[in-house]
Protein 1
Amino acid sequence: MDTKLHFIASETEQAQDALNGLINHYGQNSVEDCDIIVPLGGDGFLLECLHQYHGFNKAFYGVNKGSEGFLLNKSISDKLSDRIPKSHAISLHALKMSVKDSSGQTHDAYAFNEVALFRQTRQTAHIKITVDGIERLNELVADGVMVATPAGSTAYNLSAHGPIIPLHSHLHALTPISPFRPRRWKGALISQDETITFDVIDSDKRPVSVSADFTEIRDVISVKIKKDDNVKVKLLFDPDHALEERIMREQFIG
């Protein structure tokens, strides 16, 4: 196979065994010189790789060697040399999170799945929600709230009863986490071109943290979230394991 591959694996025995076998068969190229990065693990490990290596502008062909594998191809049974040339690509854009904390410091981070705010103590969080400069909810009382990408809509967002979003819908899910008031508010679908701002109300008494995939910041005052067109990744999928089809099927599972 002319395609240059770089293999990387999680620490599990299953993933490490696969790593050794694939390197022995295909060789190992550096991240800088490869055409495709092949992560071996679960969805969480793939996300770690996306964050670590997205700046190299390489395609990712993930292989499921973990407990979860929604964003991954099936565990290898056929030759990679046959499967990779037949794969098709999808692009995932990152959410950019800009945060101001209680000390006045600012922080930026990126998320390919979701940005989620959580209460830090037994006190519920009180959060104002603004979309493109227009106040849409003056006070959400809840355990928290999140913004999920289409790829992340089947993860934590779905567990919080948020909607599953087709990949090409150009929407983000705005989903409350255990809302207390307004009781009937189930969330909203927001255009990917719009900026979502969360302002924490009474932050001294009701402290809130925020996480963007793996980056967590505590004692936040405000959080601004928007799609970043300059930060994206290309994922490769086997024709019989297309991510778009799996997301569609998830919407019809009872």
Protein 2
Amino acid sequence: MVDSGGNLVAYSRMDGTQLAAAALAEHKARVAVTYRRETKAFEAGIDGGLTYQLTLDGVIGSRGGVPLVVDGKLIGGIGVSGGTGSQDEVCAKAGAAAN
């Protein structure tokens, strides 16, 4: 989880998860905050031929990054990695809903 400035504020990793998942999860959370949208939007855009999105700073075209919005105000983002894209997305949305 990152704050509204993209700074890491909380992190947890399951035993046995690939080491790269840590950096990917933080990256997804930061992108969700920076662009104020789920990283799924970039995945869909890139899959749909909007490859220019790959030129945007820091973009990741993979599900699992969700912005945290409370009362219309962006307060941070959650990033999940280590499963399939669908699994990462479900976990991130569950975390956002619990907020």
Protein 3
Amino acid sequence: MKDFLDRASKLYYEGTPILSDAEFDSLARKYNYNAVGHTITDGIPHLFKMYSLQKVFDKKDLPSNIDDYVCTPKLDGAAVSLVYVKGQFALALTRGDGNVGRDITEKMSYLVPKYIKKDDETVQITGEVVAPKSIPNARNYASGALNLKDMEEFRQRCIVFVAYDAQIKEPFSLWYKEGTLTFLRHAGFNTIDSFDYSDYPTDGLVYRVNSCSQYEALGYTAHHPRGAVALKEAAEGIVTKLLDVVWQVGKSGVVSPVAILQPVDINGATVSRATLHNIQYIESLELEIGCSVEVIRSGEIIPRILRRVD
């Protein structure tokens, strides 16, 4: 199962996901999978590691140590790091596996300030490249833009960069998260606390300790900072019965399994079929003919089986 989720994670970060966010989150919880990103063998190390955020699905699961926190939206795009040396924009990397990313400096030079007033420090700025949610598969559109080889095509993409953090050698010289965001805003960036994100896709809320010294004192796991979490809304579906599985040939010629369901109403639409992706996905959910399953309409359009219900 780890191999399947590794592949799904890799394709997600490349902008060609095979699972919806709800499906991936459900499987990751079931199999305790917490690897994030994918390893890039021909990349460049980030100046500071880009940690992922631990996901929680209920406010009661927020860490009790988060008393004085900053809450911001979690944009659903492609994470990027920027490096400024003596105020000059010097490097931009995709997130990759959080340790190493791919060089996208030329592309990002069209989206970010060329110079910031921090000429006595080397600064890493992290943020998200996002596309309007009016664009179909907006996250894939934004992530895919960073993989384009044609610069003219990249410049035509409708994307923006929104900054949400900055790291320097002495972390406490930016004493508070709110101060960090103020610094980024004055440097000319769109910032997560002031950007009008109403037209952009979001994927929950981020709760982050305001005090940088407290944040650092809380430390990190191998994957996550202990001073910040992502509160996500768990997808809720409708339970019905799996009647059969048939195989169909798609437009691309790929043969894929489809679930035949006992018809059920989901948000005003009668659903009797759902995608199953491939045999690995069927095995991962431990599906059997006649079992009960929870079904959602991903993006309010595509029916998907989220899990088996025993």
Protein 4
Amino acid sequence: MYAADAFGDIDTKRCAKRYFPLDPLQLHAELKTLKDKVDRVDGLIIGSGFESADFSCLKQTGRRKILGTAPEKTNEISNKAWFASRLDDLGIPHPLTYTGEALAELIAGGKHIPLHYPVVAKPAYGGGGTANFFCKTEKELIRWVTELPDFLYQDFIKGQHASVSVLLSKRAAVAVSVNEQLIGVDSLSAPGPFVYCGNISPFVTKFSDGTCEIAEELTSKLGLIGSNGVDFVITDDGPVVIEVNARLQGSLDTVERSTGLNMVDEHVNAVRGELPERVAAKRYAVKAIVFAKQEGVVIENLEVDREGIVDIPEKGRIVKPGEPIATGIGIGDSRESACADAMKNVECIKAGVR
């Protein structure tokens, strides 16, 4: 396995035969430098951060080696305005959504803005929630629409954040796990109220079956393949779709530990047309991403506990406010015991930065 990413974590490098550092601000140029290497590999699995990347620089032989949803389709789905329109066509519940341009026209015409406050503002592309924020009043909304016309503006949906991990072949889909999402967690020093901080698997609600059915139907109709994820908010009335991640998801850590599946193997098998049987969770697993509250330096070797700490930075690395430091993992027979196990590792991570 070769790996290319922008972090260069110790455990990533340890798992890879070769490692290639990437500059996230120059992905297209970086992909050009990797194109000859891609031509020599057996398959290419695209992870997060590449949803809007331009893979046209790859030769046709390289593009055929992409294992998963085609980059053009991934790019289309990551366009939140297009995605909201598609959900309208399919009749699937989702937040009322307007582009900044559409709202500007309503404002200019003195017409009523049908959104409900607080309104969530988010970039038209991208995930992770790092740039999302609230517009709490109409005055705030009008100001931000003027300053950020390329953003989307949505109704805020109250409920529990969740995701469904789905495996798809060209003929069928199977949901393998419903996961609780950790969003904007203060104890993990999340730099914003919508920032993704990890998962807890499984997530059991009275809507679990229906949520899985929506995820399977939606990803199938979108024409996805391999491992994909659907983000939801579970309200008192049922699941509401927020977005789709047409790639391997951050919940991989907890899904694997909870179900016993190897999600990379299952992703490749699904692309080849082989899906697993439905699986039941064997245990609870927690993933908790720790963010830097202030600038600091990693002073400890966090690699000591390989089972409980992952995404491990090198000793001496400088972390800036809002950057992820490392991830604490917890496993247990109950949600409570798994969370307690994860928080012990979270405290070790925090203690390792000064």
